[in-house]
Each structure stands twice: as structure tokens, then as C-alpha cells.
Request: fold
Amino acid sequence: MSKPAIGIGLIGIGIIGGAVARGLRDRAARLSEQIGCPVELRRVKVAPMDLTRPIIAEFPTDTFTTDDDDFFNTPDMDIVIEAMGGEYPAFNYLERALLSGRHVVSSNKEVIAKHAAELLELARRNNVGLRFEASVGGGIPLLQPFQYDLSVNEIKGISAIINGTTNYILTNMACEGIPFADALRQAQELGYAERNPANDIEGFDSVYKLAIMAMLAFQIEVKPEDIYREGITKLETQDFLYATELGFVIKLLAIAKEDDGDIELRVHPVFLPRDNFLAKVDGVFNAALITGDLVGDVIFSGQGAGAAATSSAVIADALAAAQDVASGVGNRMRWRLGGTKRLLPMTEVVTRYYFRLNVADKPGVLAQIAGIFGDNGISIASVIQKEVNEASETAELVIMTHLARESAVRQAVEALRQNDSIKAVNNFVRVGV
Ligand code: HSE
Reply:
């Protein structure tokens, strides 16, 4: 006998939660048609301070509760959507929802990146679904393809711009020639960057999203702390000028690469050749280039954040969960976290590098620098002397290397810093993916 209706509980009524609540209400007829019975938002768990939000007046008063037990005891609540963000108490709510036999949908990258393995196991044991498409790339379908369309491929690589705030800042620094602090301020004024922007600009947000993508791509458990992370705060206007002059664009990339059973996972700024697809993704847009051994390169691109785009993915997950409830299907996870691939330490990564050095402008200095690179097995591809400062008798040197091992580069940087003729290693940035 089919169910008279499918009940949904929602945790959080902030920007995403609000858009989800409205979407479920405004698209109720469409959802009911797709499921074959009504889909109803039964209860919303909110924090006491949320009760003053204007959206509260749009729904019957008894929809909202601030009490955990009251929320979880709601009868006929088949699906729980978590849209509150953060690690705790979101983790406890997800755990409780799964243990109580509800299908779960989450848009929360932090809690999924940090606790996916235990939550997925809990979902399996309680025979319910755990879906989290909206946790990466907002409305862009970035996770489902790994579980379905691309699932027979060996994933060889992922390179992605998955943080809109930093992409907006980098685009502005490149196009307007403005310093980082000004570009950040503009992003904050436009509401892109949060007041405490560290999550975005220090790369944590991208790390969480890469951890989730890599888990699905390689079916391994990835802890965010195992991913090498470098944010965008060290980039200066000169780096953008030289990048442009040399035919590159600077992007904060999330990179996963599989090579012979080893996997590289890293988030850091990259000098990308101007003709690379990702080099053309500007502003708050996100994009991911995924390479599979059968399918080759596939590209996903679109709005990686924002209420409407994110609610699109959350509600689609809720729809899939509702279809399972309607047809009596429990957990249908088609994959296991059983992968055996090894995470390559960052020191073993091999790539090309851009260096910007401030050096004494006198005879023999270039020879000393070449010696330091040579001693560490690093081959120099080009050297350009920029901006001579006659007063201080210093010059800025831009050096591009051939492929080099990260450990060798770190040793070379240490040696450069100890050399009296080298006033500063202003920056070094990895080149290409
Ligand atoms: N802070 C994120 C970004 C959006 O700037 O892309 C949410 O994932």
C-alpha cells in the first residue's frame, strides 16, 4: 500500500535552509507528481535566535521547534535534511537521524569531510540513505557522477576551482591589479567572503570539498588533515603581473591525481597556462575537470554557492530519498570505502615551480642561485631579471623551473634564505597540474 504522504524534517533555517523550505513548499505539486504522493515539510529545527527571522512568518507556527527531542519525535518524518553547517552539533543530529531510521540529506561539507566514513557506515547499518550532493559545488552535479555515470572509470585526475570566494578575489587581483587586502574587502562587501574569511582564503573550504570528491572518486577514506593546504594570502600584485607576462593565470586549485596506485591530494595556488579550461573560469564560478580512463576529460561548471543553486541539489537529494521511501528501498549505496591506494606525501609530489626572489644586484649572485638549484637537482627553465632598485642595489628575479620534487624545492628555499645575497624568497608557486 502506498504511503499517504512523505514527511520531511529540516534542520537549519539560514540561507540554505530557508531556500530549501521555500523550494519544498513552492515545488510541492511537482515533487508530489514525481513521487506519486504528497511530500510535506513537517518540522523545522531552529535555534532560538532564528525565531525572529522574517521567513518564520511564511510557515505555520507549529512547523518550528527549538527542541531536539520535539524535532526527532515528530511522527511520520521519513527524511531529515541538515542545512545548518559546521561540525558540531550537526554531526550529532546526523547521527541521531540515521539511528532513528530516517533517510538523511546534508549540504554540510565540513561534517561530511570529517565524518563521512562513520556516517556512511551508520546509514548502511540502519538501512537508510545518506546523500550530500550539495556539500560540494552547490548546484553543480559533482558527486553523483562519481557514484553513477563515471563509476566504471578509474579516475586519473580531478582539478577543480571549488571555492567561489577565492576565485572572485584572484580574478579581481589579476584584472584590477589590486592587492589582496582590497580584493578581500570587496568580496566581503558583496557578501561573498564571510566576516571571518579564513575558511575560504586559507583553503579549508576547498580541502573539505576535495576530501569528499576524492573519497567518492577513489573510494578511500580521506581525512581533511591529510590533504596539503595552502591558501591565497601570500600572493602579491607582482605575482599576477609576472603570471600574465609569462602566459599564465593564477587559480586556487583542488587537485587529485592518481598514478600507479599513489594519489596526490593538494589545495594551493597554481600558475595555470592561459589556454587551460580552468584558467577561463572567473569570478565566483566553480568548475571541475575530471579525467577517467574510459571517458577521458569531462567538465562540470556553474554556480558553486548561493541559496537557490544549493537548494537545487538539496531538494534533488530529498526527492531521491522520497522515491526510496515511497518504494520501500533502504540503503542503496553502490560502493564501499575499501580502496587501497596510497596517499603520496606532499614532499614526493613532482611539478614545476615559479620563484620570485629579491636579490643583491651584483656580480656572481645569479651563479650562486644556479648553484643552489643545481645542488638540489632542480633544473632551471628560465630566469628573468625584473625591477632593479638602484637605491638598495637589489633586483627582483623570476625563475621558472622544470619538473622538480617538492622536497628538493623546500631544501633549495631553505638554502636560498640562508644566503646573504638573497634578500628574500618573495614567493614560490607551483606551475600547471
Ligand atoms: N564559501 C564557499 C565559496 C561557498 O566561496 O565557494 C560554500 O561552499
Notes: The two ends are 54 Å apart (CA to CA).
